[in-house]
Amino acid sequence: MTRYLINFSYDGSNYNGYQKQKNLNTIQGKMEEALKKINNSKITKIHSSGRTDAHVHAINQYGHVDIQVDITEEKLKRALNSLLPDDIYVKSTKIVDDNFHARYMVSSKEYLYKINMGEYNPIEKNYVYQLCKKLNVRKMKKAINYFIGKHDFTTFSSNEDRKKNNIRTIYNAYIEEDNDQLLISFKGTGFLKYMVRIMVGALIMVGLEKIKPEDIIDMFDKKDKSLVKITANPEGLYLYKVEYKKI
Question: Annotated catalytic sites, by residue?
Fold first, then answer.
């Protein structure tokens, strides 16, 4: 048996999220269907770096899998891409140590979020959040700096998230402006359910001048999930990069 690390990308538009769910179309489900065919019809579970929600995309997702048949890295890549739908693509495969784990050995993740402030664009509706409102980007750029560092992100997590420890570290965060489009980046140790979308929602509140940049500090202190009135749509979110301590 050989363990492989698979790097793949996907368009999440037509999926009910990454995680396998009964009777629903998921990324994990499609990956495991293809892997089962390669692995002589044996049930083959892929362990990913993390889950993405319905309609969220990934430029670089990773998962490890144990395969019993003898197959080279390049042949595994070709076989998977021949079996997967055209909105999922395997970029590379790599043989790794048997103790490697795609989730537990992650050192950092980076997410990107795209917002359209201009006129509604139906062509990009599945890939860029069509907010279609002018934002005060200067204030948003000031506000995003308050997310950097080690914090308790309870305020910026979903009510569905029941984790006891909501402390995470954001290494870097920035906003780039290109005409009417904003690109927002967060890089950190890990992220809670909906955390990126809720942080973006808070930034949108700043951009709409409903709150001040400094109010982000109070939001952290109060640990109150009701303070952020906007959760940004999933379509604008991308898992951009995953880094490992060692491979």
Answer: 53
